[in-house]
Amino acid sequence: GAADGHVLIVGRSCPWAHRAWLVWALRQLAGSITLLVVDPDPAAGRWCFAEPFEKCTTLQQLYRRSGAPASARATVPALYSRSQRRLLVNESARLIELLNDWPAGSGPDLDPADQRAATGTWRERLQHSVNDGVYRCGFARCQAAYDRAEADLFASLDAAEAALASNAWLSGPALSLADVQLFPTLIRLELVYAPLFGVSRRPLWQLPALWRWRQRFHALPGVAATCHPDAWRSDYFGALFPLHPSGIIPAAPELATLVGELPALP
Ligand SMILES: N[C@@H](CCC(=O)N[C@@H](CS)C(=O)NCC(=O)O)C(=O)O
What we know:
- This protein is of the alpha+beta class.
- It is 45% helix and 13% strand.
- It has 2 domains: 2-100, Glutaredoxin (3-Layer(aba) Sandwich), CATH 3.40.30; 113-258, Up-down Bundle (Glutathione S-transferase Yfyf (Class Pi), Chain A, domain 2).
- Helix 1 (15-26) runs parallel beside helix 3 (92-100).
- The protein is globular and about 60 Å long.
- The protein starts with 5 loop residues before the first strand and ends in an 8-residue tail after the last helix.
- Bound molecules: glutathione.
């Protein structure tokens, strides 16, 4: 239980942390794993604890105390064990599997056996072309690299749109880790990735099945509380200096309009 001292460390803006946070919420793990949200310190380029945690004020100090080499980046998400006084896992793809299998978990199993193959295939494709894909667009150093990443990204979104024509969720009739992986990227689309990373070929309303999927996912119990659009925008626009030197944070639509009904066209 939480008394054994497992702590899931996340940051609001980080999409990798968001997927772990989602599994924590959907599996209703609040009773056995404490959630700890760290704040960005863009000037110093690191994550900080609002109150000292295990005598540390930065995540970097906690990594060092867990034996991480001085050169290691201190990333979120991370799962910490108070009793072992060390970080157990800091790779989100592995972490979401671990959290889904966590003994005290309830709520739906996010890796249902009869969809396991499809879930695995989707997760691999999404990781490369969508989750990393938006970053490959945003940080491309030449037109050809951008064009490749952008084409890959929208090909995968088109494939997801097609899959959702016959299934409620990405890998079949039941919710899975594939959906969990897609959501953090898609919920940031209009607010961050389209304007900042140049991911604007098709607004999401042109992919209506994906739009409704996103609306349905956002309505699942616990999901809304993981979404912090103001933090997303200020962290991305304020802190990714080379991409956005002015640091000006643009106005954006309310999140509610992005997870509401598709407006009927005249
Ligand atoms: N491989 C990691 C990547 C996580 C990651 O890149 N997190 C970023 C935030 S989005 C981070 O904490 N960066 C801090 C740093 O690099 O110093 C995972 O998927 O868990």
